[in-house]
Amino acid sequence: MMDMKKTKDLLPDFDYKYGFSVPEKSVYRTKPGLSKKIVSTISGLKKEPEWMLEYRLKSYEEFMSKKMPLWGHDLSHIDFSSIVYFIRSTDKQAARWEDLPQGIKTTYDKIGVPEAEKKFLAGVSAQFESEVVYESIQKELTEKGVLFCDMDTALRLYPDLVKQYFGTLIPAKDNKFAALNSAVWSGGSFVYIPKNVKLNLPLQAYFRINAERFGQFERTLIIAEEGSFVHYIEGCTAPIYTTSSLHAAVVEIFVKPNARVRYTTVQNWSTNVLNLVTKRAQAEKNAVMEWVDCNIGSGITMKYPSVYLVGEGAKGEVLSIAFAGRNQIQDAGAKMIHIAPHTSSRIISKSISKEGGRTSYRGLVHIAKGAIQSSSYVSCDALLIDDMSRSDTYPLMRIKEEDARIQHEATVSKIGEEKRYYLMSRGLSKSDAESMLVNGFIDPVAKEIPLEYSVELNRLINLEMSGSVG
């Protein structure tokens, strides 16, 4: 995929907690490369209905016909013929942690999945390579009609529900990587929250890439019926290799009238992972959709969570943190599409760059004709740790309605010498002082994350800052 010398340069100079790997012991893996035969093989192994196979094959044709994106960052080095598109790590999914194969269990023990499940979560799924290997959901949620499982299981148990929504928000023709996901998707999460059911504890999915030169293409579908609430959290990690891997997920979320969905990502891929993701939500009347998007790792991230505000009074929010270290590119942002009247949106973007890292805010606010008295507020703040780093802002405003209110502000700043000196005069090292200032900078977003996850986010930021040059 990527030139080996170039990829070696991406390897971080700090102790990446999740950079370990376990010996690969797959039950089945496809040969590298993509073809109709590979697509058909994946569908056949999963014993999918005919309509899904047809969908996959049409998506494959879309992928082959679409050119690579010319905007943003150079992706021409991706060698799709060298990627392994499907790895089955175990022959059956586990409902008890102790039933997992030892290598997979060791991996998730190190990440802390069982501990988090006991303390903080209403339900958890863990994906290892291509498929979910472990699922657990509290009994009382099942009794309320909550459905939480992997997409493969959902397709088997709830085919009509999946068929009704799958690919309707993000069709295969949307972009090249959405087409690729639609052709070879595997794993991911399916969440269905019945009318007026509100979950007090989050649901969480963990995604782990263990193999080299691997592509992970999970597919997530969330349906929140009228008056319901769910908070879904995903965590992503991978080991460090000298060859790169591709992560190209697709997430579709349907927020029905008066419902609320919060989707939190703490992405800490190692720097040999290319993170190219499409995420989109649809908010109906008086619905609320919130994305909390924290991007710490990966070599290149290109991700722009979107909300289509199709119902009167709908609200959308994106709170985003991006951290780019040496040879990292974090191209993140948001899209807010106001279609109905009296809709509102808010985008808060915080980015930090150090040691030559590059962050970019790339966003779109569209207010359609007829979306009267709609409002949008966008704030992009960038913090540069040194003179080597770079931050860019690419905002696009399409305002088709005169009766609307739009606010946009952007700032770029460096760590203040006076503040750093003051903290160092109180006994802190330069690195610790800078870490404290960075944590203060991201606090407006970090405080929106549940405490146990914001602590982890701050720890990751401190780890990234430990070798910074100021």
Structural notes for this entry:
With 470 residues, the protein is α/β, with parallel strands linked by helices. It has one domain. 25% of the residues lie in helices and 35% in strands. The protein has helices spanning 4-8, 36-45, 50-65, 102-111, 113-120, 139-143, 151-157, 159-165, 176-184, 417-425, 430-446, 451-465, and strands spanning 28-29, 87-88, 123-128, 131-137, 147-150, 189-193, 203-208, 215-216, 219-224, 229-237, 245-247, 250-255, 260-267, 273-283, 288-295, 300-303, 306-309, 315-324, 329-338, 344-353, 358-367, 374-384, 390-399, 404-414. Strands 5, 6, 8, 9, 11, 12, 14, 16, 17, 19, 21 and 23 form a twelve-stranded mixed β-sheet that branches. A ten-stranded mixed β-sheet has the order 4-3-7-10-13-15-18-20-22-24. Strands 1-2 form a two-stranded antiparallel sheet. Strand 3 and strand 4 (131-137) form a beta hairpin. Helix 2 (36-45) packs antiparallel against helix 3 (50-65), helix 7 (151-157) packs across helix 8 (159-165) and helix 10 (417-425) crosses helix 11 (430-446). The longest helix is centred in the C-terminal third of the chain and has 17 residues, at 430-446. The protein is globular. The protein starts with a helix and ends in a 5-residue tail after the last helix. The model is unreliable at 1-24, 116-123, 130-135 and 238-242 (pLDDT under 50).
Structural class by sheet pairing and helices: alpha/beta
Count of all domains: 1
The shape is globular
Parts with pLDDT < 50 across at least 5 consecutive residues: 1-24, 116-123, 130-135, 238-242
What Rg do the Cα atoms give?
21 Å
Please, how many helices?
Answer: 12
Cα-to-Cα separation, first versus last residue:
33 Å
Helix content: 25-40%
Q: Tell me the major beta sheet.
A: 12 strands, mixed
Number of E-state strands: 24
Residue fraction in strands: 35-45%
Q: Return the average pLDDT rounded to an integer.
A: 81
